[in-house]
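Recap slide: Spore protein YkvP/CgeB glycosyl transferase-like domain-containing protein, sequence and predicted structure.
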Amino acid sequence: PRIEGTNTPLKIFTYLKSGKPIVATNLSTHTQVLNENISMLVDSIPEGIAQGIISLLRDKELRVKMGREGKNFVEENYSYERFVEKVREIYEYILNLTYKETRVSGSKKR
């Protein structure tokens, strides 16, 4: 289990995609992506991790719900298709700014 760090581990996305519930430490490196709807966030101590695992083992409905919602979340927000869409939006934004700047600077020269 991770007890410190500053970047979100890429394996988080693979775990979410698996459709299985995740037990993760409640650190900003994880909460940048994870929340309590899609993962079991626990204290960074052995007892916290153990309690998270036990809670999921005891509650099948919660396990299934977290797994399903985690998979949906990663597919909607971090899939290849979503990445392509975000890149396209960035290019369109930049091109729109460039077009506006060209029109503004072009009209000033007249």
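Helices lie at 11-17, 28-31, 46-58, 60-77, 80-108.
The mean pLDDT is 89.
(End of recap.)
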